[in-house]
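Appendix B: complex inputs.
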Amino acid sequence: MIGREVALAAAGLVALFVGLSVVVLSLVWLERKFLGRLQGRIGPMRVGPFGLLQPVADAVKLILKEDVVPAWADKGLFWIAPILMFVPSFMVWVTIPFSRDLVIRNLDMGLFYFIAVSVVSVVGLVMAGWSSASKYAILGGLRSAAQLVSYEIPVIMAVLGVVMLAGSMNLLTVVDKQASVPYILVQPLGLAVFLIAGVAEVGRTPFDIYPAESEIVGGPFVEYSGAHWAIFFLAEYINTFVVALLVTLLFLGGWQWPHLPGVWAPVVVLVKTYLVVMVIFWFRATFPRLRIDQLMAFGWQVLIPLSFVNIVLTGIQLYYRWPSWSLSLMSLGIILAMAYWQYRTQTAPAQALARSYSQRAYSQRRGA
Amino acid sequence: MPEGYAINWTVVVLAAAVGVLAVAFMFAVAALMAPRRPSAAKAMPYESGIPPAPYPWAQLSIRYYIFAIFFLVFDVEAVFLFPWAMVFLKSAPPVFYEMLIFIGVLLFGIVYGWRKGALRWR
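Resulting structure:
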């Protein structure tokens, strides 16, 4: 009995790995194509129809490249680091469902398991940076430690808000509870915190402080090449997909869609997830990279207090049995107030500068 | 239930094993197919073309350490918050208020660190 279940799960895991590889290829293509369109280009066109085979060509190229290990590197750590980054991002998938039946093992502590396992990849990044023995890599490794550790807390707290609403850490239950109202309407603040902190956790563009190409030329990945670098790349895209999928499951109602038979569940999940992924790519085309002091200030002085406010509000609403739209209103109000405050404080220096310039131009014209 | 747990955690360990095997497979393929022509210049750490100074593991700023300590506090606190989130609606009133006080203490900690400038990146 146990043997059969485990064998089934093993087959599922292998299928999952193949599926994830295809997903990563599709994400690479989608990112390059979508980013190209957003920047007024057409993106990859040469390899295959619409450049569809471009990511395959890239993957083959990566495998066929020489795998250089720098002479000064700590060779053992240098070898293990990509594994330590990839394995957690794969282990997370044990409990992530695509539909009610399409899940490898439905753990009761699913969300807790996700948080516990996904944190481990920070160790891989720090290890990669430290063992490379290049100054850029060490700086990148330490930056990744500081950044991922800081943004882990908002992620945990946003997940906690959902756990409070659903009264369960089981992902199937969480989705089932959203049958009538998805949590994006109940708790928009939680969604905002989770999405922003999630994007920071995977180090995508407005928050790519640790691989910042223009400052520390790739951070922890400077010295990596060939297959080792390919593993990092794979893990990064899998993590991006996990964040988008969790946004779908926790806030967008997972496979719930009105008047659609259950057969379509995985399709609904995938469509929603790819839409969220495209929003994440859209961030990349829109926002410039933060400076590291802005990044830390935003994490500790905006996101973490906000995530606590989210928990307290949710707790009060649930405990005193206020109607759930009261939580929606409070959440929205706080988002708007925070957005306005951030807009004012972040643009104030630039606006003051613009004012001083226009005044100077005005007085010069008057003088002439 | 114990049987279910046994299967669940076996599968989790299995997932780790499959992950490691997949990576090992990719490394093996790469080792078989990729060229290998080592040279001294190639094996030097890349520092934008300037010959690197001998010791890379130099002394580093303390600020990373401060944020690590902050993280530790909040991460431990998350361990308390998750069980609470599961039961606070079903338990006696003090459970709810106690956690509010706990969160209040933590927020006070953040505000204190903020005022002291510990959260600023210098």
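DSSP finds 14 helices and no strands in chain A.
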